[in-house]
Amino acid sequence: MARDESTSIHQQKIIPDGFSEIIFHYGDPYRISLNNEWQLQTDILFAGQISQHFFLENTGASDIIGINLRPKAFTRLYELPMSPFSHSVVDISIAIPTLKKLYIDVNKSKTDEEKVSAFDTYFNQLLVQHPIDEGN
């Protein structure tokens, strides 16, 4: 979780780390420059495995929750191939509607502990349905 009430615009260079990530934005939107073109991001994102750096820029106050996933976790949990998401950051709420419900549930939470609990409940239910080996 990251929260910044400042409305000063900051640009960040994001370096690839080999992980995919689910990102929820609760503050003002971010802009992304992935292929030398700036675009406004949506509230619920999936960042596939990225092979080159890119830039993010806030447009105001930010409130972000990000979940890093091991390389095979996304495919195992959601039964979707990873290849269409490689080298991209996309709105994932249409492909995985349960993430929209999680986004709403987390937004209703009053404390960080309640937010973490909502994530724990969601992912524990997914893991019951789609177990992941510890080695993957």
CATH fold label: Jelly Rolls
Number of helices: 3
Helix coverage percent of residues? 25-40%
For the largest beta sheet, what order do the strands appear in spatially? 1-8-3-6-9
Beta-strand share of residues: 25-35%
What report would you give on this structure?
A hairpin with a 4-residue loop joins β4 and β5. This protein starts with a strand and ends in a 7-residue tail after the last helix. It has a single domain, classed as Jelly Rolls. The protein has 136 residues and is α+β, with helices and mostly antiparallel strands. Helix content is 26%, strand content 29%. The strands form 2 sheets. It has a 5-stranded antiparallel sheet, covered by helices on one side. It has a 4-stranded antiparallel sheet with strand order 2-7-4-5, with no helix packed on it.
Q: What tags apply to this protein structure?
A:
29% strand; Jelly Rolls; 26% helix; globular; alpha+beta; 5-stranded antiparallel sheet; 136 residues
Question: How would you sum up this structure in a few lines?
Answer:
The protein is of the alpha+beta class and 136 residues long.
